[in-house]
Amino acid sequence: MAEQKKTGFSSKIGLIMAAAGGAIGLGNIWKFPYIAGENGGSAFLIVYLVCVALFGLPLLMTEFLIGKRSGKSAYGAFRTLSGNNRWQWLGWLCMLTALVIMGFYFVVTGWCFSYLVEAVNDVFGGFDATAMTAHFQKIISNKPRMLLFSILPVALTGAVLWFDVNKGIERLSKILMPLLLLMMVLMAGRVLMLDGSNIGMQFFFQADFTKITPHVIMEAMGQCFFSLSIGMGALITYGAYMPKNQNVVATSIQVIVLDTLVALLAGAIIFPAVFAFGFNPAEGPELVFVVLPAVFEQMSFSWFSSVLFFALLCIAAITSTISLMEVAVAFVCEASNNKLNRHKSVLIVSAVVLVMIAVCVLVPQVFTIFDEVSACIMMPIGALGMAIFVGWNLPNPNGKGVLSPAKGAKRVMGKIYINALRWLVPAAIILIFLNSLGIL
Ligand code: PHE
């Protein structure tokens, strides 16, 4: 708890912006458009929004509450709240999920840094769709360069955690997140004026229920967990830093709204551009990297816009990698009873992450597996575990459990929340799993 005071957030809005900064990242701007593009556009969007409504609020609240009540990160939180070791596996799962995500996330962050350098050097001028795709392939096939560009964000993230500069990140998020949003609004406006952009808008926004398949549902659930950072303990850490009088419900809603807004904006930029320039919406993980430079070519101040955007994208990615790496670092500290201090933990985690990154860069199949398994399997299982842990073990409203003593409307809301955790969330996750396995 002493640590909580030291690194605690200075204001409510600071915590919201930091949590939103951790949630908003490549998941919204890189992954959302590519997964949506591969899964039927609007069909995916519908299921995604249903998943956000269904899972977002109860699970965000749950993680914040676990952190707030225990004052610990994932590993220590489950033990402190349950008073035994039976839920320790959830702490392990959170740490493992963080490692698997970091394995590929840092690689994509490396792509962003590489594109930032290219934007500075103005190399995209005059490229058409084919040239853009070929250029991306050329960049990622240069493995030593990719490795180097992936190591850079690991060093940056490690440095932030080493020097414990959360305050700086809080201040940075408060300025840069709104700037990123503004930039994206301008880009969406420009893209909408392109010839043929209406086909992209239809692809993304015109509801087509016929394309909803079990696979689309599974991918949408995974993307919801990934984008909101649910089910791997990242939000537990923010909960532990939360000022005691901060409202968990309001904070959760604000983070969800901001995160969803950025994902929608990313879609509203990418899909109209995809159709206007003749790209393939199901292009895969390279989608935004081939489409965005083409968008900047159409904008006024194209050099400045693309440099600014890729710089903001790199920062959005780093605020997410900080919250990811924090889960693993806190795990090492807490699991070793602080025998391994923060500095040693940062070094150990960075070393493990570097190995995972090397594997992802050298074996593209592993990249794909990490990307898929973390979102669609590990995070939903983590969320399922947390829902059952809190729903069935800790609902006691008289102080010992997770809910505060509450009366009137709050009591009713608390009841709805607990029942959602007990029944709705676990049932929905299990049904989606069974459905995608073809058992239902
Ligand atoms: N939500 C982040 C994004 O959208 C990724 C992330 C997942 C960050 C899990 C922390 C924990 O980019």
Using the CA coordinates, give the radius of gyration: 21 Å
Mind summarizing the main beta sheet? none
Distance, first to last CA = 46 Å
Taken in chain order, the helices and strands follow as: HHHHHHHHHHHHHHHHHH
> Segments where pLDDT lies below 50 for 5+ residues?
1-6
| Mean pLDDT over the residues | 92
Instruction: Provide the CATH topology.
Output: Hydantoin permease
CATH architecture designation: Orthogonal Bundle
Number of helices: 18
Question: Could you say how many structural domains there are in total?
Answer: 1
Residues in β-strands, percent: under 5%
**Number of E-state strands:** 0
Apparent shape: globular
**Which compounds are bound in this model?**
phenylalanine
CATH top-level class: Mainly Alpha
Structural class: mainly alpha
Helix percentage range: over 70%
Oligomer: single chain
Give a description of the structure.
This protein has 440 residues and is mainly alpha-helical. The protein has one domain (2-436): Hydantoin permease (Orthogonal Bundle). The chain contains 18 helices and no strands. It has helices at 2-7, 12-23, 26-38, 42-70, 74-82, 88-120, 129-141, 143-162, 166-192, 197-205, 214-228, 234-240, 248-277, 287-298, 302-335, 342-362, 364-393, 408-436. Helix 9 runs parallel beside helix 13 and helix 11 crosses helix 18. The longest helix has 34 residues, at 302-335. It is globular and about 65 Å long. Residues 1-6 have low confidence and may be disordered. Bound molecules: phenylalanine (PHE). Residues 22-23, 25-28, 101, 226-227, 229, 232, 234, 320, 323-324 line the site of phenylalanine (PHE).
